[in-house]
Amino acid sequence: MRDNSKFVGYLFEVAWILPSVAIPVTLFVAVVITAFAVGIRVPTDVGRVDPQALAQTVPFDNPGIREMAPGVYEATVIAQTFAFTPGEIEIPLDSKVTFTLTSRDVIHGFKIEGTDVNGMIVPGQITKVTTTFRRPGEYLIVCHEFCGAGHHLMFGKVIVK
Amino acid sequence: MARAITSARSMVAERVDRFGTEKRLAAINIIIAFSALAVGGLMGVFQVLNYNNIDLYPAVKPVLPGGYYQGLTLHGVLNVLVFTTFYIIGFLTFIFAKSLDKPLASPAMAWATLGVMSTGLLLAAIPLLLNQATVMFTFYPPLKASSLYYIGLTLVVAGTWLLLLNMVLTRNAWIKENPGKRTPLASFMAITTMTMWSVATIGIASEMLFLLIPWSLGLVPGTDIILARTLFWFTGHPIVYFWLLPAYISWYSLVPNHAGGKLFSEPMARVSFILFLILSAPIGMHHQITDPGISEAWKLVHALFTFVVFFPSLLTFFNVVASLEYSGRKRGGKGWLTWIFSLPWGKPEFTTQVLAMLLFAFGGIGGLVNASYNLNLVVHNTSWVSGHFHLTVGTAVALSFMGITYWLVPYLTGRHLWSRKMALTQAWLWFVGMGIFSHFMHELGLRGMPRRTMIGGAPYVLDSWKLLLPFTMIGGLIMFVSAALYYLNIIMTISAGKKGYNEPVPFAKALSGPEDTPQILDRFVPWLLVSAVLILVNYGPTLFNLVTNARFNIPGLSPW
User: Burial, B544: exposed, middle or buried (Cβ in 10 Å; 0-12, 13-18, 19+)?
Assistant: First the structure.
C-alpha cells in the first residue's frame, strides 16, 4: 500500500475506535446513574437460610404480607415445586414492597410482569427485591427458571388495589 | 503437459498424506456435530409448535418419555454443547495445521482428543435419552441428574484440552523451524481460541469435580448452589466466545478470500483475539445479576468489563467490513454503500457467512442490554434471552459453520457442492426464518414471557403473547426448511457430487499483514498473565467468600 492510503486507513480506524470506546462508556455511566441516583437496584448478598429449618426462621415461618411502616410492606414468599406460598398477594396502591424470597427445594425464578422485579430464588439463600406499585390491577408472577415437570404451572399474582 | 499433470497429482497425493489425520478428524468431528444438530434442531421445531398449542410430544413418547423438557434439554445440549464443541475441535484441528502448513505434532494425541470426547458424549447420551438428565445444558443444581451426565460432559471438556496441548507442541516445533517469523494468522487465532477456552473451563471442571460429580454419586449429602452457579458461569460466559471465535477465524482469514479481496488488517485482528483471551473470563457474573448471595458491587464490575469486551467485537466489525469493502471496490463497486452489491453474492460460502454477520450485529447489541446491570431486570430469563442467543450462537456461529462446510466438505471429499443454488436458498431462508423467530422471541420477552417454559401448557399465557406467538412458529418452520435443504445438499455432495474439486484452502492474504505485526502480538504468556490478574481481581474476592462460607446442605431433587 502507498503511504498516503495507509494514513487514510489510520484515519478511518480512529474514526471507528473513538465511538467504539465512547458507546460502552456512555452505557456504563447510564447504568450507574439509574442504579444509584434513580435507585433501580439488583439483588445482592443479604444472607443465607437453612431450607430445612424455614418453619423456625423469621420471616419464612410466616409467609405473607406485613406492613413495616405506613405504605411500606414486606412480602415473604416461599417457592417450592410448583407453587409460590402465598400464591396471591394483595397490596394497597402506591406502596413500596420488598419481596423476601427463598426456596424449599430447587432453584425457581420470580418475575413480576410489568415491573422491575426479577430475581432468582435459590435454596439456602435469601433474595430481596423492592419495587413500588403505582398502577392498580393484577400483576402476573411467573417462575422463570426451569424447576421440573410442572414448571409451566408455577405462577402467582399481585393484586394492587 | 504430462509432466505437469503428474506433478500436480503427486502434490495432491502429498497433501492427502501430510494432512490425512487432520482431514479425517475434521470430517468425523463435523459429522458428529451435524448429526447432533439434526436432532437438536428438530426438537426446536417441536418447541415452537408447542408454543402454538400443537403438541407433538405424545406421538414420540416411546423415545422421548420426558416430553417437552427432555426435548428442550436435548435441544440445548445437542446444539450448543455437542454441535459447537465437536465442530470447533474438528475445524480448528484442520485449519490450525493447514495455516501453519505443518501437521499436528502428535497424531496419536489428536485421535485421543476425539476418543475422550466421544466417550464423554456416549456416557452423557445414556441418561439424556433415558430422561435421567432433564436438567438443561446449564445443569443448575440442586436439579440432580444421573452422574453419568456430569462425568460425560467433563470428559468432553477434558478431551478438548488435549488439542491445545497438541497445538502448543506443534507451534513450538514450527517456531524452531521458522525463527523470527510470525505464526500464520489462522493458526495464531486457533491457538488463542483454545487457550482462552482452556483457561475458561477451569470453572466448569472445578464445579464438576469438586461439587456435582461427588454429589451425584452420593459421596456427599448436599451441595452449595451459588458456589456451583458461580463456577458454572466462570465458564458459561467465555463458552460463547469459544463458539464465536472459530466463526471469527473464518470471517478474518477465509471470508475476505471468498469475497475476492484481502483482509484489511492482520495486526488489528490479532489485537481483537488477544483482547478476547484477556477479557472473556473475568465477566461471567453478568449472567448472575439477579442471583442472591453475590454482592451487587461485583456484579457492576462484571457489567463494566462486559462493555469492554464489546470493543474487540467492534474491532472485528470494522476490520471485516473494511475487508469486504476492499473486495467490493476491487470488483468494480462504487459509492458509499453500493459497493455491497458488487460482492460475490452467488457464492454460497460467502453469502452464508455475511448473512450470519448481519444478524450477529443485532445479537451483539442485544447482548449489551443483557449485560447492562439493572436493565437486565427487564429481560433476565425471559424469551428475550433465547431470542438473543439464537442470533449469536444460532446464527453468527451455526450459520457460519454451515457456510464453512460449503467449501470444506468439497475440499475434504474432492467433490463439488451438489447444488450452489440450494445452498444460497438455504442461507437466505435461515436468515429470514431466524430474523422472524428471534425478533418475536425478543418482543415476547419484553412482555414477560419466560424462557425454557412449556408455554403450550401454561395456564397464565397473556393476551399480548398470544398475538405474537404464531410468528415464532413461522420463523421456526422456515428454519426447518432451511435445515432440510442444508442436510440434503451436504448428503448429496458427499454421495453424488461431481468429482474433481481440487481447490486449495481459501486463506486470505492481508493488506496489512505479518510484516506490520509486532512480536508482542504473536505471544501468549504476557497476555495470559494479564488474564490471570484480571480473573484474580474480578473473581477472587467473590470466590473466596463463597468457598469459605460454603454450606453443602442442599440435597437435590429430580422433579421431572
Answer: exposed
Nearest chain A Cα distance for residue B132, angstroms: 12
Find cell 459421596 and name the residue.
B219
Q: What is the pLDDT of residue A59?
A: 95
Q: Please report, for chain B, the start and end positions of each structural domain, with discontinuous segments joined by +.
A: 20-502+510-548
User: Domain B20-502+510-548 belongs to what architecture?
Assistant: Up-down Bundle (1.20)
Query: What are the C-alpha distances in Å from B177 to residues B170, B171, B181, B183, B324?
Result: 11, 10, 9, 12, 34
To the query of whether residue B486 is one of the catalytic residues in this protein, the response is: no
Q: What pLDDT does B13 receive? A: 53
CA distance B102 to A107: 49
The residue ranges of chain B whose pLDDT is under 70 are: 1-17
A106 and B142: CB-CB below 8 Å? yes
pTM: 0.95
Cα atoms found within 13 Å of the Cα of residue B41, Cβ hemisphere only: 26
The ipTM, to two decimals, is 0.94
Q: Tell me B223's DSSP state.
A: B
CB B200 within 8 A of CB B166: no
Look up B241 and say whether it is catalytic. yes
Helix, strand and coil in chain B, % to nearest 5: 75, 0, 20
The domain A51-160 having CATH identifier 2.60.40.420: the answer here is yes
Catalytic-labelled residue, pool B182, B237, B258, B442: B237
| CA separation for the pair B14, B26 (Å, rounded) | 18
User: Residue B130 gets which letter from DSSP?
Assistant: T
What are the boundaries of each domain within chain A? 1-40, 51-160
Confidence grade of residue A1 (pLDDT, cut at 50, 70, 90): very low
**What is the DSSP pairing of strand A127-132 with strand A96-103?**
antiparallel
